[in-house]
TrEMBL record, chains A, B:
Keywords: Oxidoreductase. GO terms for molecular function: oxidoreductase activity, acting on the CH-CH group of donors, NAD or NADP as acceptor. SUPFAM superfamilies: GroES-like, NAD(P)-binding Rossmann-fold domains. This is NADP-dependent oxidoreductase.
């Protein structure tokens, strides 16, 4: 059996996460039992939700256990199988974690999904045609429910989730306005993803200033907002929100370090009769087939061309993850493992 | 025609509203035109929403115009009629405003509604069997959607809206927990309205302390919250909110003076997958018949026994209104005009 390298959560962050929270170890992969499959990971997905799980205490998911392999989505290839449902060479997706190999019970439902990589590159199953894409789809389609001609704003617009939100909104005849950090990301959001406009939040020190920029980009106000960030952007969007507008709360990177990120103007929820709704895509498995079908078609036909930032090798995972939390990635953050 | 006394909005509040914002004037009621009705008001309703309309600027309703009679709900009696649909002596409800008489076009739909006062005292049509009652009904039934055994919290629980929320929640097999100001109001909420518990927010200086009291009163967490206040209570409730809990945003007295009232922990909307929704009952006229039927039955059978605080005479209206904004009333605030 091959030697496996793994990244463990060694200790929990106090405030900001640092590289010293992680530990790289080497272990032998155990011999397979009946029904098990050995998967060699090609890509590991790094996602903001992982930061939340590094904390102790109440959140939507169980905390990541200390001393164990960091959890995370992976795509890869079956390299050994004692399960008739999986053959060596099958491309598969699972929650393999921050490691080079995983041993998976192929009989347990939902643990391993076979992938068709004819038209869709395997890494996209961790992005636009995977959890981030379905996250975009659920928040937009089921919570924001955009109507033709309405204006939809999404933060972290160049990211894996944000890029899909905008393209899906455009498909429904809505205007898509992005918020992103820096001119390069904004240019990508408008020129390559086809958003109607993108605002560089780094040009604005406070919510009022950002709200003014949003007003110019959204002359008819904002009907829906897909929230990936929290804080300043949320406040600014609420100042331009229309009556009966909807906010899908998907991520609040701004708050992962435990610092307070108050919502400045909650009374606008009342005066504008808004609906603000949090969700976690893994609790809505019923939409995955429909969502993946639309997302797969958009990627295969080139209508959704998501960017990827790819770190090389497992050693690079912790720094890549910390960079993701600071917005240093451009598009979907992956780690190439093979 | 009788002499009419009226309260006008003389100038807009700068910060807190004061008596000097209002002006009492006397005028002659004009002679009736064909189709018009002269109504003598028995009661004027004072409601928190009026404070919002005293401000200029964007809100859910047009601002109250300066120099004109303050708008408000009234019940009274037809004393003169040039409309075959209304006879002298009919009891009616309308938006007569802060004045002793109003002249109403009886042909315009929705302007004047005839009341049956056989089983329900006329003043209740401004409270439990009127706009405040339907507000409670809509927010509870349509937004919070309580299930049997769930825990529902309501702020301003002794008030016209809050009292109905609790009684309606109990009717649906839910636990009802009130938040109110002072021991007398809390005693009324539990002993006379039948809530399971009531917390005196004045005993708590911060959200953490109030959250601890809520935790003791709600050992299974909070599934629904009916928000009448904003600020501290909202923060405390959110700290005890369950997964998939719902907040109906109905009023935010705390913010009417324009001071900031941030929501301290918006990230809980995400981690608890909450739904937070603002509403205005006048935009949901379709529920009024069903709601009024249930509320009328609850009042007529003594299951909902709302308190009233009655100020005497139009002169007393401004001070009574300012007291309402400070929570000095006990139950529905009315002004007796005849």
């Amino acid at each position: 059996m091959p030697t496996n390298r793994q990244v463990l959560l060694d200790n929990r962050p106090k405030g900001e996460a640092t590289a010293s929270n992680f530990k790289l170890v080497t272990s032998e992969t155990p011999a397979l039992q009946d029904g098990q499959v050995l998967v060699r990971h090609h890509y590991l997905s790094l996602d903001p939700y992982m930061r939340g799980r590094m904390n102790e205490g109440k959140s939507y998911a169980q905390p990541q256990p200390l001393g164990q392999v960091m959890q995370g989505g992976t795509v890869g290839e079956v390299v050994e199988s004692r399960n008739p449902k999986f053959a060596v060479g099958d491309k598969v997706q699972g929650m393999g974690g921050w490691q080079e190999y995983s041993v998976v019970d192929g009989n347990q439902a939902g643990m391993l999904r076979k992938l068709d990589t004819t038209h869709v590159p395997i890494s996209q199953y961790l992005g636009a045609v995977g959890m981030p894409g379905v996250t975009a789809w659920y928040g937009l389609v089921k919570i924001i429910e955009p109507k033709e001609g309405q204006t939809i704003v999404v933060s972290a617009a160049s990211g894996a989730v944000g890029s899909a939100v905008g393209v899906l909104a455009k498909q429904r005849g809505a205007r898509a306005i992005g918020v992103a950090g820096g001119p390069d990301k904004c240019k990508y959001v408008t020129d390559e993803l086809g958003f109607d406009a993108c605002i560089d939040y780094r040009q604005h020190k406070d919510a009022r200033s950002l709200a003014q920029a949003l007003k110019e980009a959204c002359p008819n106000g904002i009907d829906g907002y897909f929230e990936n960030v929290g804080g300043l952007v949320l406040d600014a969007v609420m100042l331009q929100a229309n009556a009966f507008s909807r906010i899908a709360m998907c991520g609040m990177i701004a708050g992962y370090n435990g610092e307070p990120i108050p919502m400045a103007y909650p009374q606008l929820i009342l005066t504008n009769r808004m609906r603000v709704e949090g969700f976690i895509v893994s609790e809505h498995m019923e939409v995955w087939p429909e969502a993946l079908k639309e997302l797969g078609t958009l990627v295969a036909t080139g209508k959704l061309r998501p960017r990827e930032t790819v770190a090389q090798g497992l050693d690079a995972a912790p720094e890549a993850f910390l960079g993701l939390l600071k917005g240093r990635n451009f598009g979907k953050q992956l780690v190439k493992l093979a």
